[in-house]
Amino acid sequence: MLRLSAPDQGVLFVVSGPSGVGKSTLLRHVFARVPGLAFSVSATTREPRPGEKDGVEYHFVDAATYDSMVARGELLEHARVYQHGYGTPRAPVEAALRAGRSMVLDIDTQGAAQVRVSYPAAVGVFILPPVVGALEDRLRRRGTDSEEVIARRVRQADLQLSGASDYDYLVLNDEISVASALLEGIFLAELCRRGRRQSWLNLVTRGAVRAVRDPTGT
Ligand code: ADP
Ligand code: 5GP
After folding, report:
1. 3-state secondary structure (DSSP) of residue 166
2. Ligand 2 center from residue 40 Cα (angstroms)
3. Model-level pTM?
4. pLDDT tens sequence for the chain (218 residues)
5. Quick check: CB of 72 below 6 Å from ligand 1?
6. Which of these, 9, 7, 14, lies nearest to 117 by C-alpha position?
7. What DSSP character marks residue 6?
8. Ligand 1 contact via 172 beta carbon (within 6 Å)
9. Which residues have C-beta within 8 Å of that of residue 133, sequence separation ≥ 6?
10. Are 54 and 165 in contact (CB under 8 A)?
11. Ligand 2 atom 16, closest CA
12. Residue 106 CB less than 6 A away from ligand 2
């Protein structure tokens, strides 16, 4: 994990891409490297995959619970994706940003469009496959979904890809080490935007960085 102080304001990162492109894999890498990020745990009506734990990858909820979360306005955004309901709980995102922490949303393009309306400063990253055919291979090799589910997800890849032009950054996930480095670099660069680091400038102007690093003043 790199050592990096928190920015003046937390960043809302939105990561999207077709199913099987490698979003979860790349985000695991970024979470292990970049400090101060929290993952937004979505609510979903889909069944857990083997190994997924309630409250970790998702809050797995039934349709009635999901509908009442929508009706009560508890979701910051929500959408039907691959025949299931998915939504981002509003409270953890608002609490994190209020406290200056950064949040990462792994959501589809419909949800990202809703987030852009309420949070225009959100930073969008779209993950691209080297070729659309790679998605099917990756989903099959992941071994977590039936052939029917894989076919449905691959059929909808074009729909997700057509939203890519609304994002701030593109990452091509061909070679995983390259894509991980790119995603990490994007996150780090955003955390160092001048508007989010006025406190560094203030410290240097007052000579405080030197004082902190060299308490003897020599
Ligand atoms: P998503 O979260 O976008 O649905 P995953 O992160 O689950 O996708 O990745 C789908 C599968 O593809 C996983 O088995 C993962 O190990 C594999 N994968 C991810 N990136 C690459 C890559 N660059 N090359 C080959 N396989 C990859
Ligand atoms: P999966 O079922 O493979 O975990 O996710 C399927 C798709 O749903 C992915 O594109 C993922 O980004 C998206 N997704 C996950 N959580 C949310 C959410 O809270 N809102 C929206 N709109 N999409 C989500």
Report:
1. helix
2. 11
3. 0.94
4. 889 999 999 999 999 999 999 999 999 999 999 999 999 999 999 999 999 999 999 999 999 999 999 999 999 999 999 899 999 999 999 999 988 899 999 999 999 999 999 999 999 999 999 999 999 999 999 999 999 999 999 999 998 999 999 999 999 999 999 999 999 999 999 999 999 999 999 988 888 776 667 666 55
5. no
6. 14
7. P
8. no
9. none
10. no
11. 107
12. yes
- Where in the chain are the domains? 12-40+101-213
Tokens of 161: 């890809």
Q: Which of 142, 152, 174, 177 to mutate to test the pocket of ligand 1 (most atoms within 8 A of CB)?
A: 142
Q: Domain 12-40+101-213: state its class.
A: alpha beta
Q: Position of tokens 């160092």? A: 192
- Of the candidates 145, 136, 87, 80, which has an alpha carbon nearest to the alpha carbon of residue 115? 87
